[in-house]
Amino acid sequence: WEKFAEWGEDLEVNIAKVDVTEQPGLSGRFIITALPTIYHCKDGEFRRYQGARTKSDFINFISDQEWKSIEPVSSWFGPSSFLMSSMSALFQLSMWIRHCHGYLTESIGLPVWGSYALFALVTLFSGLILGLLMVFVADCICPSKRHRLPQHPYSRKLAPESAQLLKKLDEEQEADEEDISDDETEGKEVSNRNSSPNAVRQRPVNPAATVDKS
């Protein structure tokens, strides 16, 4: 690899190496499962080299453009994708936790079980905070029913058949109410006539004016 790097200027490529033990984020970003792992990058596309590890094979890979025959890494698993960035952050977090554990047990002198208990409490507290935050966000996006405004029962758009049936029922109900009101009016008139005093006047007869002509 070092001899191949001497040909970089002639081949117009940049050749480099990285120690993933010192850069754990790259181990997750590139999914390093074996060492050494070699990638070819051009125009934002990454291709994994799996050929022989000799200087001549490296040179032929670039000069003969053999890299074009290799399928580039999917955009989902590319080093710059959101998934691989999250994986890189996870690897960095794991290394940070490892360094913190070493500092607590070696520098401070905390027992191993004490370090584990401390990390457990921190994890539990972080989970509670994250859960409360998720509940708050969910309640803002989808509020509960008691916070929703009451809706009019007829606010939804009815089907044509349902609308016609509802209109017919309303008309029948109005007709029934008119018939009931007419019956009540007639009943009141009859009751008024029956309850009024007898207004037939009788002409008084004067007994002194009665003459028997027989």
Automatic annotation (TrEMBL):
Pfam families given in the database record: Thioredoxin
Subcellular location: Endoplasmic reticulum membrane
Domain Thioredoxin stretches: 2-63
Top-level taxon of the source organism: Eukaryota
Keywords: Disulfide bond, Electron transport, Endoplasmic reticulum, Membrane, Redox-active center, Signal, Transmembrane, Transmembrane helix, Transport
Biased composition (Acidic residues): 171-186
InterPro entries: Thioredoxin-like_sf, Thioredoxin_domain, TMX_domain-containing
Major subcellular site: endoplasmic reticulum
Transmembrane segments: 117-138
One Gene Ontology term of the molecular function aspect: disulfide oxidoreductase activity
Designated name of the protein: Thioredoxin-related transmembrane protein 1
